[in-house]
Design brief:
Elements: H1 12-29, H2 31-34, H3 40-61, H4 66-76, H5 111-134, E1 142-148, H6 152-159, H7 162-169, E2 171-177, H8 180-183, E3 185-190, H9 193-200, H10 204-210, H11 216-225, E4 227-230, E5 233-236, E6 241-246, E7 258-262, E8 267-271, H12 276-297, E9 306-311, H13 318-326, H14 328-335, E10 340-341, E11 351-359, E12 362-370
Parallel strand pairs: 1-2, 9-10
Antiparallel strand pairs: 1-8, 3-6, 4-5, 7-8, 9-12, 11-12
Helix pairs in contact: 3-4, 5-7, 12-14
Length: about 375
């Protein structure tokens, strides 16, 4: 008799990984596309991709989480085309649990794109770690990110998705380089002495003492050739672990304040110096964020045309107002129009919502009015 084992652990971890990729990468990266900021055709591509992913994911997870996936499926069902034959799900689509398990779509696999996105994610994760370490919120713009890798192909892969790097790490300039000297790239060697001791025996003490003083150039050569001599002891590939690190040169007055991070493959240097002009841009983005929150609270959708007015308590808010005027292009990129002083509102149109909000240490009243 054939026994079928029910081993959830063989698939659930991979599905959780897919959910993370979908929510924290695809949806996060494509929020503007999904809202229609790049035009109707591009929005349809983004929405169709998201729809098919959710549809396939529901069918895949239906055996594990039957009620949650059924709920999501019923939200998708009104958007099915009249003829569902090309979906390969049969004719009875009343319930997710009437549908067959999805088939692998080999034509969707693109190893080049997967490699590019994987390398992009590595760079962004390293940058996020630096921001967290230095307690710099992502909303604070920074001047420069330097990405180092010895393989130009790696750099080209990340460069092909440059807008995502700039957006996710909120940096104005991204520099791609393979110049080790420019980035202060150095190499050091480490060893698992318990394993190496069985091979070297009495010579282990000599190697252990001399290893910290091995020159960076010699360790780099070891990476290439698999051979190195440490205090007269010949070592070969596998005996040592070579690690790439960054030795940041002393900061000059007015120069960048680099913080580094690496996954022992790609290296990044993020200029963490806070600059007043970029801080102002960050404040402008805070204003945009408050307007967007208010739109959401009022139940507005992306296509609703709204004018925004603002006001301050008399005698206050002058500095924030000056920043808003100076950063008008930053605000308009998202809101499509500039917020205006409340004194310009004639009262002839309906107010959607009005609320006092905080931006930094300032308080302002935002009034959303139908255009």
């Amino acid at each position: 008799m054939r026994h079928i084992a029910y081993r959830l652990y063989t698939v659930v971890n991979q599905i959780l990984g897919l959910i993370d990729e979908l929510t924290n990468w695809y949806i996060r990266f494509n929020r503007r596309r999904l809202k229609g900021e790049n035009g109707l055709e591009d929005t349809l591509h983004a929405l169709n991709t998201l729809f098919e992913t959710l549809f396939t994911l529901c069918r895949t997870l239906s055996a594990f989480t039957p009620f949650v996936t059924e709920n999501i499926y019923q939200g998708l069902r009104p958007f099915f085309p009249a003829d569902v034959s090309h979906l390969g799900v049969g004719h009875d689509v009343r319930s997710l649990h009437f549908l067959p398990f999805p088939h692998v779509r080999e034509e969707y696999f693109d190893p080049v794109m997967e490699r590019q996105v994987s390398r992009l994610q590595a760079v962004i994760d390293l940058g996020r770690e630096v921001r967290q370490r230095k307690v710099i919120p992502v909303k604070t713009p920074l001047a420069e990110l330097v990405v180092f890798h010895p393989d130009q192909g790696y750099l080209d892969d990340v460069k092909s998705l440059l807008p995502y790097v700039e957006q996710e790490l909120n940096v104005r300039t991204v520099v791609f380089t393979s110049d080790e000297a420019r980035c202060g790239i150095k190499f050091r060697a480490d060893a698992d002495y318990a394993v190496l001791g069985r091979k070297l025996r009495k010579d282990l003490a000599r190697v252990k003492k001399a290893l910290p003083n091995v020159a960076s150039e010699d360790v780099k050569a070891y990476l290439a050739t698999g051979q190195i001599t440490v205090d007269g002891v010949e070592l070969v590939k596998g005996d040592l672990t070579a690690t790439r690190y960054v030795e940041v040169p002393p900061r000059t007055e007015g120069g960048p304040e680099y913080e580094t991070n690496t996954n022992n493959d790609v290296v990044i240097l993020l200029d963490c110096l806070r600059r007043p002009e970029l801080e102002q841009e960050g404040t402008a983005r805070e204003v945009v964020n408050r307007v967007q929150r208010l739109r959401k609270k009022a139940g507005l959708v992306a296509t609703d045309d709204i004018d925004v007015f603002y006001s301050f308590t008399e005698g206050l808010g002058k500095e924030l107002e000056d920043i808003m005027v100076a950063s008008d292009d930053v605000i308009c990129r998202t809101l499509k129009k500039s917020p205006r002083p409340k004194t310009e509102f004639t009262g002839e149109r309906d107010v959607v919502i009005e609320e006092e909000v905080e931006v930094g240490d300032d308080k302002m009243t935002l009034t959303l009015v139908w255009a």
